[in-house]
Amino acid sequence: MKWVAGVTEKIPILYFRYFNARTKMKTCPTRKRCHATYELAEEALIGAHLAYRFGKGRRPVGVYQCDECGLYHLTSRGEVNSRLQKMLDEGEIQKQKEANWWEGKFRKRH
To answer: What is the pTM of this model?
Structure first.
């Protein structure tokens, strides 16, 4: 994989190749949302669980590196991400969802 010279973090050239200047979003031939690093994709995975309600079997559970663009996507197949599973088991996702709900309720009042 080729890397961009002179960048403080090593970012693959493919990252720039699939960058859409109009939307400022990276695009992939698979038309899936891209994340530059595994860590960012993992944050997006957890964020999705905080922001949305998913039906059983229809939720993203993991992160993988795409063969097409070299970036990271979320997947609803395979094993559950260990960090996500830990947060689900400890009830952290539900606690944060509830906190977000109350925050939204208070914002509407004032």
So the answer is: 0.68
In a domain, 24, yes or no: no
Please tell me the predicted confidence (pLDDT) of residue 58: 77
12's tokens: 């693959």
Quote the CA–CA distance of 27 and 34 in Å, as a whole number: 6
Radius of gyration of the chain (CA): 17
**Can you give the residue range of the structural domain that contains 95?**
37-109
With cut-offs at 50, 70 and 90, classify the pLDDT of residue 43.
very high
Q: E strands along 1-110, which residues?
A: 19-20, 25-26, 62-65, 72-75
In a domain, 85, yes or no: yes
